[in-house]
Automatic annotation (TrEMBL):
GO terms for cellular component: cytoplasm. It is found in: Cytoplasm. Its EC number is 2.7.2.8. This is Acetylglutamate kinase. It comes from Brevibacillus fulvus. Keywords: Amino-acid biosynthesis, Arginine biosynthesis, ATP-binding, Cytoplasm, Kinase, Nucleotide-binding, Transferase. Transmembrane segments: none annotated. GO terms for molecular function: acetylglutamate kinase activity; ATP binding.
Length: 269
C-alpha cells in the first residue's frame, strides 16, 4: 500500500510557503506517496471582509459566520486560495485537483449549537471524491467547507478539524499540520524549545496549565481526535523542505503526537 499523508496548510502560512515547498510536494508525489492537502485561509477572508466593510468577528477562536460572511468564506476558500494552491502545485510539476468539502457531499456537517452562525461540526466524511482524485494520480486540494445533511446550507468548518476528520476516514498514516512555528514550544531554562514528542494525556495537561494556548489548541485537539480514530501519527511542523522529506521518510521532525507515552526530555535536539 502506498504511503498516504494528509497535509494541513494554515491560512497564516499561505503567503510564507516558498516555491521549494511545492517542489518538494511534487517530488514526494513522484515517489509514489498519496498526498491530500487541506487548507485554511483566515487572513485572506479577513482582508476580503474588510474590503466589503464587514468587520470580522470571532468567539472562542471560531469565526462568527453570518449569511454575508459565508458567501465570502466560500468565495475565498473554494475560489481564490484553493486555486492559488493548485496553480502553485501544477507549476512545481505536481498533479493537483482543487475541490471543497461540499463537492460530492464529502463533508456533511451540522450547524454548531454555539451562537456563532453558519459554522459546522462534521458528522460524516464521504471519502469517494478523495479516492477518485488519488486514483487519477492527483493531489486533492480541499477547502474546508461542509454541507448540511439536506444539502441546503453551506457551513464554515475549522480547517484543523476537517483535516483530522479526513485523515481518520481515509486511514492516513500521518497528518502533517503546517504552521508558522516549528512545533509545540515549551519554556525551558528561560528559552523556548521544541517538544519533540507528546501524547493526548500530556496535551490536555499542557492546555490546562496554559503551556498550549490560542490557535494551537484546535490543532492539538484535532490531532488527538484523529489519533483516536486510527491515524498513527500527527506532526506539527513548519513545512520546510527538510521537514517534508523527513516526514515522508518516517524520520523525526517537528512535534510528533502519537498515542504512545511521550519521550522524557524530548526538547529540541
Amino acid at each position: 500500500m502506498k504511503s498516504r499523508i494528509v497535509i494541513k496548510c494554515g491560512g497564516s502560512t499561505m503567503d510564507q510557503l516558498p516555491p521549494e515547498f511545492f517542489q518538494t510536494i511534487a517530488q514526494i508525489q513522484a515517489k509514489g506517496a498519496e498526498l491530500i492537502i487541506v487548507h485554511g485561509g483566515g487572513p485572506a477572508i479577513n482582508a476580503r471582509l474588510k474590503q466589503l466593510n464587514i468587520e470580522p468577528q470571532f468567539a472562542d477562536g471560531l469565526r462568527v459566520t453570518c449569511a454575508q460572511t459565508i458567501e465570502v468564506v466560500e468565495m475565498v476558500l473554494a475560489g481564490t486560495i484553493n486555486k492559488q494552491l493548485v496553480r502553485a502545485l501544477l507549476s512545481a510539476g505536481a498533479s493537483a485537483l482543487g475541490i471543497s468539502g461540499m463537492d460530492g457531499r464529502m463533508l456533511v456537517a451540522r450547524q454548531t449549537a454555539q451562537p456563532i452562525g453558519l459554522v459546522g461540526e462534521i458528522e460524516q466524511v464521504n471519502p469517494e471524491p478523495i479516492f477518485h482524485a488519488l486514483s487519477g494520480g492527483y493531489i486533492p486540494v480541499i477547502a474546508p467547507l461542509g454541507l448540511t445533511a439536506l444539502a441546503d446550507q453551506a457551513l464554515n468548518l475549522n480547517a484543523d478539524t476537517a483535516a483530522g476528520a479526513i485523515a481518520a476516514r481515509i486511514r492516513a498514516e500521518k497528518l502533517l499540520m503546517i504552521t508558522d512555528v516549528p512545533g509545540i514550544l515549551q519554556v525551558r531554562n528561560g528559552e523556548k524549545q521544541r517538544l519533540a514528542h507528546t501524547n493526548p494525556i500530556e496535551i490536555e495537561r499542557m492546555i490546562s496549565t496554559g503551556e498550549i494556548h490560542g490557535g494551537m489548541i484546535p490543532k492539538v485537539r484535532a490531532a488527538c481526535s484523529a489519533l483516536g480514530q486510527g491515524v498513527k501519527e500527527v506532526v506539527i511542523c513548519q513545512g520546510t523542505t527538510a521537514d517534508l522529506l523527513a516526514a515522508a521518510a518516517g524520520n523525526p521532525v517537528g512535534t510528533s503526537i502519537t498515542a504512545e507515552t511521550p519521550i522524557t526530555g524530548g526538547a529540541k535536539r
